[in-house]
Amino acid sequence: MNIAFVGCSYTHWEDGDCKNKNYPALFAKAYPEHNIYDLSIPGASNDSIYFRLYYAQKHYGVKFDKVVVQMTHFARTLHWYNKWEYEWDEPLGQDGYSKKNYTSIGSRYSFKNFNTITSGVVFFENIWQSKVAKKIEKTIGIKFSQLQKYFAHEFDGHKYVWQCQKELDTVNGAYGKENVIIFSWHENFDSKTSKHHDIILPDNYIGSVDKTFGKKFKEDYAADSSPHFNAAGHLAIYKWLLPHVTDMIDK
């Protein structure tokens, strides 16, 4: 059975400094009879979730039987550099690797094909995001100060919330709700507790890491202020997801 985990840096191992100890890797160790694909990439957007699933199936020549989705911040979007084509044999990320039944697609987006525009890219929060901003400026031919104004306006609207709704419905439609588990990192994604949006959460949405772990979310398990989780935090997520994943596999 082929099982895909899709998320951003919160699912990935890099920021938490826990390579081979993030929760997708732990599932690979727990289920040696299944093939685990870790499609998480730092900075990844919600509107790239189905693309990554679709890409990985073409690139690796597999069909995913089960999917676990971690939703991230609303204010992110996928930006393509190639307008009309994509090289499906080109590695999606850098530093990808395979080990036994575990495949990780890598740590950073390939600068050749696309990047995610995030609120961090818009406001130059770090060196990596500054490089992305300069690449976008060069590709589009518009001063990034103008792009900053545009995306600051875009991210303040409802568009990217609606894209999350489409992504949820697309993944569930492609694989079937019984074969998909969805959760979010932050509680504000949950429309039952947040009044800022009206996403219709599907039955296979199991909650947020934020609400599930309470104070430990920003204390015991936090590797930084975001917070990305350390190895202990990833182990806690693994234990939280385990009964859900086990039930999904058994269906």
What features would you highlight for this structure?
251 residues; alpha/beta; Rossmann fold; seven-stranded mixed β-sheet; two-stranded antiparallel ribbon; 8 helices; 11 strands; 37% helix; 18% strand
What does this structure look like?
It is built from eight helices and eleven strands. The strands form three sheets. A seven-stranded mixed β-sheet has the order 6-7-2-1-3-10-11, sandwiched between helices. A two-stranded antiparallel sheet has the order 4-9. Strands 5-8 form a two-stranded antiparallel ribbon. The chain has a single domain, classed as Rossmann fold (3-Layer(aba) Sandwich). The protein has 251 residues and is of the alpha/beta class. It has helices at 23-30, 49-60, 119-122, 127-140, 144-155, 159-175, 209-213, 231-250; strands at residues 2-6, 35-38, 66-71, 76-80, 93-94, 97-99, 102-104, 108-109, 114-118, 180-184, 205-208.
Topology record:
Elements (H helix, E strand, L loop, with lengths): L1 E5 L16 H8 L4 E4 L10 H12 L5 E6 L4 E5 L12 E2 L2 E3 L2 E3 L3 E2 L4 E5 H4 L4 H14 L3 H12 L3 H17 L4 E5 L20 E4 H5 L17 H20 L1
Parallel strand pairs: 1-2, 1-3, 2-7, 3-10, 10-11
Antiparallel strand pairs: 4-9, 5-8, 6-7
